[in-house]
Structures are given as C-alpha cells and as structure tokens.
Amino acid sequence: MKVLVTGADGFVGRWLIRRLLDDGREVYAAERPTAPPGGEGRPTGSELTDEERAAVHWLPLELTDAASVRSCVDHPYDAVVHLAAVASTRDAERDPGYTWTVNAAGTARIAHALGESRRAGRADPVVLLASTSEVYGRGDERPRRETDPVAPVSPYAASKLGAEVALLEEWRRTGLRGVIARPFAHTGPGQDLRFVVPAFAQRLKLARRIGAPVVKVGNLEPVREFLHVKDVVDAYARLLVKGQAGEIYNVASGRGVSLERLLELLADLVGVRPILEADPELMRPTDIPHLVGDGSKLRLATGWTPRSCLEDTLKDVIDAQAD
Q1: The domain 2-187+226-253+293-302 belongs to what CATH superfamily?
Q2: Which residue from 78, 97, 122, 182 has the least number of CB within 10 angstroms?
Q3: Span 51-73, mean pLDDT?
Q4: How far apart are CA 222 and CA 139, in angstroms?
C-alpha cells in the first residue's frame, strides 16, 4: 500500500509515518518546503531516525499553492492521510482568514486533485481527513456522538468543519473515498508547547528546578479526554483499511478529566506542588466546558481501543522533555 501523509513534519505526522513503516507501507511524506530538515528545532521525543527518514519518499507541499498540491498528489496512491493544517487554536485566532485558506481551501484543493485523478482512472485512494472534536462546540456534559449537531466556536474548529464539507462534497460528486476522523484531545512525546499537556509539564518542571512557589495557569475547569498520540495513529491506520467512505468517526476514549485534575497528576509525576495563579493571558474565552467523545462507532468498525492510560501518557510527555 502506497500512503501519502500530508503534514508529515508535524507532531502526529511523525508518529504516523513510524506506524505506517512498521506496518510495511510505502510512505510518501509531504511537508512544507520551508520546514526545518530532520526535525531540527522541534520538541524532543518524536523525531524520525535517519533510517526511518531514508525509508520515506519526501515531497514538498504548500497548501496555498494549487500547482504544488497537484504536483504532490499526482501519484498512484492507495491512501492519503491529510494532516496538514493550522493546528493551534491560538494561531488560528490570530489570522482566521489564513487558517481558512490552509485548512478548508487547502483540503478542497487536495480533494479536487484526487477526485480528478480518480475520474481519469489514474488512482482510487482512500482519503482520511484528520478533523477535530472541536467542531461539536459547546454542548451537554456527555460523550459526543457523530450524529450530534456541529457548532464550532473558534476559527480553528470552523475551518476544520469547512474541510470536512469539502471532502464530503468531493465524495458525493466524484466518488472519491473520503473518510473523516474527529480525534479528541491527544498528546505525547514531541508535542510542542502551544498545547496544554507539554505546556503544563514544562511549567511544573521549571518550578521544581528553580524552586518557584507559583505556577501560572489559565481556566482549569474544562473537562477533556487525553489520548496518547500512538493510540490516535493506530485509529488512523485502522481507518485506512476499514473506514467506510462518507462516514465520520470519533477517535475517543469517553474518559474525561478536568484540567485541574490533569495538572495535579502532572505535578505528582514531576514531584512538585506549587501554588496556582490565574493568568488572564492564558484564558481562552472560547473554551468548551466539556468535550469528551463516544468512540463506539470506531470501535465497532475497526476493533480499535486505546491502550495507554492517562498516567502513562503524561509520564511519556514528562520523560521526553529535557530538563
């Protein structure tokens, strides 16, 4: 199986490449032409080895350039996993227009080029889009199902919903075998400090190292679930084989934890118990109070179940961060 992974230079992309290579797939990895080579400047813990990088076919991809998209996807792939995106909510809020151009219009370009290739008889790939659970927006304090209404409350989530619409439209019009994954929050070694778990871990380790009595935090009331990135890429690998075209699948454990409890667990693992101080700069007015998912559809379709418990996941993040 020949698999193209877009966003291959990102956190999840690196873990997915490793998984696909372990599965014996022939991997084509698309990254931005301006991406630093070899993982330079990225958080430690998820870099590909020289041997892994040598086993991959690397391609340039700029989603804002239609010619670059056509050149990248014009190969007889069996599957495409589309991860490339503006993935940070804060980055998206700084420039919503650019976020829509990358996330929604970029996906539309990918889908259109692959749909044209299918109609010309050159290839008929499965196309897996990594969307986000944040498309559900605010709602009841219960696990979200794929049949629940969508009501995004951030430019990031809205642009990802736009990406879903673009892929499903191409499926209806050309038969392109589009499958959508809605992963709930996930973390692991190599995730950068724009995201809550590595950010908490770094602040706590710094507090322990310098003896600081206070750690600044944002809103700790929201409830989330936190999957290990290895479990998420396992779900993606299974969906490439068993996902049904036109369907949406939550990647979710159904086990939620408040950010306050998450911070307590991390503090225990680091070995520090600081005073928590609310910082207005870390508050997000668009925080969703409760976002936990029902993963039964994915489980029934593929047999997937998360293997890593929360404590082990957090320990992996802490161990990967250099003191």
Answers
A1: NAD(P)-binding Rossmann-like Domain (3.40.50.720)
A2: 97
A3: 96
A4: 12
pLDDT at 41: 41
Q: For the structural domain made of 196-223+256-291+310-320, what CATH number should be given? A: 3.90.25.10
Q: Let me know if the fold of 2-187+226-253+293-302 is the same as that of 196-223+256-291+310-320.
A: no
Spacing of C-alpha 307 from chain mean position: 18
Does an H or E element contain 43, and which?
Answer: none
Q: How confident is the model at residue 283 (pLDDT cuts 50, 70, 90)?
A: confident
Backbone Cα Rg of the chain: 19
pTM check: above 0.85:
yes
Paired with 275 in beta bridges are: 214
- Beta strand 126-130 with 79-82 is parallel
| Cα 193-195-198 angle, rounded to 5 deg | 55
pLDDT digits (tens, 9 = 90+) for 179-235: 999 999 999 999 999 899 999 999 999 998 888 888 888 899 999 999 999 999 999
How many residues would you count in the chain?
323
Domain ranges of the chain: 2-187+226-253+293-302, 196-223+256-291+310-320
